[in-house]
Amino acid sequence: MKNPYLTSVGGPDQKDTHYFSGTGSKWDDQPLCDNEIEPYLRLTAAARRRRNSTNLQVGDFSPTHFHCLCCAASLRMANPSMKVVVLLRDPVARALSKFLELKQQRHLSSFYMDALEIYSYTFVSYVEAELAVMRRCSDTARRFRSSASPRSRLLAAAGRRPRGAAMPRGWGAGWDMGQWMEAQCYARSSILGWSMYDVFLENYAAQFGWRQMKVVYTHDLLTAPNDTLHAVEDFLGAPRARLHPNDKLDDLVNTRDCYSEACSRKRRQLRPYTEALGARAGGATALGDNALVDDLWDPAAAVAAGGAATASAAAASTGSSSSGASGGAAGTSPFGQAVAALRQLYAPHMQQLFTWADQGVIPQPPQAWRAAYADIGGSSTNGNGPGRRLQEGGGGGSSSKLRG
């Protein structure tokens, strides 16, 4: 932890408690939203005793709490004044990163059962199969949708929103059964579904209000790490950390080359995603495919790092953003077609983020996101809660350290 005034509820050796969410896997019997609260409060007190300080903010850094539909309500009951910080990455890059993580972590299958499920899949074949599952799931859920519920009208009357923004709705806070079911489709798909950021953001906003939430993008941490860190500290009300002048805040952990916090990497040391995937991509990849999905790899350092494949990918990525996935058109390779299908899937959800950003609810996302997730296939946001309709075409195919 860079800031001595911030610490984890689980202590220095347990940043992710998963206390209310479990692992977030669909293989978990159930979320732990009704987990006993007193031991959790004791963990908070223990964190303060370890530091022998009352001038300390204790946080929970479990990323699975974001996708857990009932966790926002549980956390709000535990602390209604809680401030929520969410770090978002390009949705296709996040999905690919999760796929590669589970492929690399098959030995942890007792904890991540998802790793066994995808054992026989390539990225291309998994996208094709999982998109079909998600479409069936969301189509079923939509049959249970209803008009605005009395609960949502009551919340709207309370006025807990910035001017111009629609009243957020969520689990136990305005969703009807169809919206709940559709959100479950995404919450139980850790690779593809967890990139439906608008659904999970709105769920938390429905409990805490937008003013108690701060959205940060990986692009911010890559391009202006100190400014981003200070902005988060200011939002939390914590004194700013005094960093060593040589601390560039540029370590990446749990990367594509070494999924462990014990072997951090610099951006210049990363291989391109397509090179790291190898045969797991699912067929030959074109030279430009890496630029479609890689928001961490630094093409400027590729030639210096060496390797023919790396240099070729660097040449193919010329003209793309080095700090965000390219907004260019997806390629014609099987991998490129899978990326195109995912962009189409995420487009309406991303457009909801753009709407919120234009309303001043969240910060403006990286410009590359707008280029990549523009009006694809006629998709649009309709303001009807989670799961702005999945697109039918193209289916063939909270730490200062980033994951690569």
Automatic annotation (TrEMBL):
Keyword list (alphabetical) reads: Transferase
Q: Domain of life of the organism in this record?
A: Eukaryota
Annotated SUPFAM superfamilies: P-loop containing nucleoside triphosphate hydrolases (SSF52540)
Fetch the InterPro entries from UniProt.
NST/OST, P-loop_NTPase
Which region ranges are annotated with the description Disordered? 375-404
* GO molecular function annotation: sulfotransferase activity
Keyword Secreted recorded: no
This chain's protein is named Sulfotransferase
Q: Which organism is it from?
A: Chlamydomonas incerta
Lineage, highest ranks first: Eukaryota, Viridiplantae, Chlorophyta, core chlorophytes, Chlorophyceae
